[in-house]
Amino acid sequence: MKVYISVDMEGATGICSAEQCRKDSPMFTEARQLLLSDVNAAVDGAFAGGAVEVIVADMHNGSFNLPHMDVDSRAKVIYGTPHYGPRLPFLDESVDVMFLIAYHAKAGTLHGTLEHTMSSQDWYKLEVNGTEIGEIGVEAALAGSVGVPVVMVTGDDKLCNEAKTLLGNIEAVEVKKGVGRQRALCLSIGDTKKMIFEGAKKAMLLKDKVKPFKFASPVEVALTLKSTAYADGISPLNNPNVKRIDGCTVVSSYTSFPDWVGGM
Predict the structure, then answer these.
(1) What is the pTM of this model?
(2) Residue 22 placed within a domain
(3) 150 and 255 assigned to the same domain
(4) What CA dihedral angle connects 67, 138, 98 and 55, to 10 degrees?
């Protein structure tokens, strides 16, 4: 089986501050080791569950968050930017299942640790065909467009609840409980390493039990920004399909969901 692992950072074991996720912060060195532990546990569990190939995509911020020399040597790793054209390279029909590691809850989630959707600065709410989604929804719908199910996520309790509500009975490994945007009750790295390994191993059995998540085409995308100033910056001149429906919300239509992602 072939496994594709998309990796964020805010949902990793022990991470609950924005400072930990910035390369120019003294806290980043330890944080990337915390992330590495989660990722290697997922890779190890995937192989223990029958994987013959694992691709890891380092997707947080400008990428290069995982120290390459320490990543499980059995995995292939995608580094670099931009995160479009395509957003998730090599995610195609040859992939059997997808894991989303160290993800966070969607913007506005009560007590979600480092909650946001795509951009902490300006995005507030994203709806596709009337369904509100966060970043796990974006990744899952891209996977679903090529018939690949997301069978595992890791993050805080709010992210796990969001994933199960959206994607069904998947493996959701809770590495911390969100207390506030930058506050969480964190489990030890020893405990979460075991939990993620076991979760990944079990998730490999879900290939034919979890349906790929997908949006029917065409898609209508409604994006609510955090201020009218940000909405002003999305000009209908750049996309004739864009309509401004109120001060902070713009709506646009695309042939398919991947078409919207490619034009973000």
Answers:
(1) 0.96
(2) yes
(3) no
(4) -40
